[in-house]
From TrEMBL:
<dbReference type="InterPro" id="IPR006439">
    <property type="entry name" value="HAD-SF_hydro_IA"/>
</dbReference>
<dbReference type="InterPro" id="IPR036412">
    <property type="entry name" value="HAD-like_sf"/>
</dbReference>
<dbReference type="GO" id="GO:0016787">
    <property type="term" value="F:hydrolase activity"/>
</dbReference>
<dbReference type="InterPro" id="IPR023198">
    <property type="entry name" value="PGP-like_dom2"/>
</dbReference>
<dbReference type="InterPro" id="IPR044999">
    <property type="entry name" value="CbbY-like"/>
</dbReference>
<dbReference type="Pfam" id="PF00702">
    <property type="entry name" value="Hydrolase"/>
</dbReference>
<dbReference type="InterPro" id="IPR023214">
    <property type="entry name" value="HAD_sf"/>
</dbReference>
<protein>
    <submittedName>
        <fullName>Xylulose-1,5-bisphosphate phosphatase CbbY, converts this Rubisco inhibiting byproduct to xylulose-5P</fullName>
    </submittedName>
</protein>
Length: 264
């Protein structure tokens, strides 16, 4: 039996804070990875990140940081130009160009249930925000080409990329959102897909719901209040990986309220 409907007025829960990559959309394997490879090719480099290699590189968040990690851990320094790390910002700008172009083709859709949940949350008066490691232009491009250009304004804060000095797993980006919204952690809930993501959200004391993907299915989500394979739709139920959904079959605001109220 579902719990009674609660509006944000009589609920402590005020805001939903969404991660982007892997949570709103499966952008990593067929989006960011492709764009990195296109940038390497454009610059005449012989780097190529396979699906498997990219999975290892995802240990580090942030595209510039990921390229530095690749140089330090995957390549033989003797064969590299000395100034290779100085080239990274330029290479990354090219990658962003390729990535936003790819998104503009509509090739990367939102994950099941994402649009429905965002619309339901708006109708019920929850405040929305984004806390992501990716570059701001990438968020704008994803939202514009999936939910329409107006959707940028549905989010009160879009915290992205270098706006904080330490990226996920540091809690800084979530803390930044809370500060901007003048909300405390117990008035919000976070949506994540990865271990670095949940370390960041839990580090900011946020209850967190996880939707896994192929790259993150074996991550440690012990601290999540619910772990699902996807948000799901009425006609496309989620599979529960960990937690209790009160007999719900897709993630909606009623279930989120229940999860937010229950301690874990
Ligand atoms: C996303 C990231 C980002 C993207 C690439 O992590 O780690 O680095 O992979 O984006 P999260 P940029 O979902 O935890 O925010 O190249 O723009 O950095
Ligand atoms: Mg993510």
């Amino acid at each position: 039996m579902a719990a009674p409907f609660m509006t944000p007025k009589n609920s402590k829960l005020k805001a939903f804070i969404f991660d982007v990559d892997g949570t709103l959309s499966n952008t990593e394997r067929d989006g960011h990875r492709i764009a990195f490879n296109q940038a390497f090719e454009e610059y005449g480099m012989d780097w190529h990140w396979s699906v498997e290699t990219y999975g290892k590189l995802l240990a580090v968040t942030g595209g510039k940081e990921r390229m530095k990690f690749y140089v330090d851990n995957f390549l033989n320094k003797d064969n590299l130009p000395e100034d290779i790390k100085e080239k990274i910002p330029e290479l990354h700008a090219a990658k962003t160009r390729h990535y936003t172009k790819l998104l503009s083709t509509g090739a990367i859709p939102l994950r099941p249930g994402v649009e429905r949940l965002i619309q339901e949350a708006r109708q019920r008066g929850y405040r929305l925000a984004i806390a992501t490691t990716t570059t701001p232009e990438n968020v704008t491009a994803l939202l514009t080409h999936t939910l329409g250009v107006d959707s940028i304004n549905w989010f009160e804060v879009i915290a992205a990329g270098d706006v904080v000095p330490s990226k996920k797993p540091a809690p800084d980006i979530y803390q930044y959102v809370l500060d901007k919204m003048h909300l405390s952690a117990d008035e919000c809930i976070a949506f994540e897909d990865s271990e670095n993501g949940i370390k960041s959200s839990i580090g900011a004391n946020l209850k967190t719901i996880i939707t896994i993907n192929d790259y993150t299915e074996n991550h440690n989500f012990t601290d999540a209040c619910l772990v699902l394979d996807q948000m799901g739709e009425p006609e496309q139920p989620f599979s529960i990986i960990a937690g209790n959904t009160n007999s719900a079959t897709y993630l909606n605001c009623d279930l989120i309220e229940i999860l937010h109220q229950s301690s874990h």
